[in-house]
Amino acid sequence: MDKLDAMQRLIVAEIKGSVLNAEVEKKIDKLVNTTNHHRHKLDELTYKINKLLLVLNELHIHGTNLERSYTVKEVADMLGVAYTTFLSRIYANKYIQPHKVGSRPYYYAKDIAILKEQTKELQGHAELQRPGETSKG
Prior knowledge:
The protein has helices at residues 3-61, 72-79, 83-91, 109-122; strands at 69-71, 99-101, 104-108. By secondary structure, the protein is mainly alpha-helical. The chain has two domains: 1-63; 69-122, Multidrug-efflux Transporter Regulator, Chain: A, Domain 2 (Orthogonal Bundle), CATH 1.10.1660. A three-stranded antiparallel sheet has the order 1-3-2.
């Protein structure tokens, strides 16, 4: 083997090494990019979960009930009582007071049964009479 052959093999080995290094570097770069992408997604998810936990914690601290809630108007319609009459009875403390969520009053599902009983008591266990109707019995 002469010097030319030795140099040729050395050059070929270096070229192969540099090609291999380039491929390895590309794969390493791709892996780093993928890892960074997943880390970014994980950070986003962690942020969203922490934000949700803060909201839930805030709700728990203030004792807000997470069950289904109804507006005062919806409850009045459910009970078959005119909205204005229902409001005046609330202000007169004839009905249980609505819960405040922010600045809006709401009733929860568990309150509806109590409100139905209070409505029966206020009506004297009789149906509301419309003007012009006579009572039966």
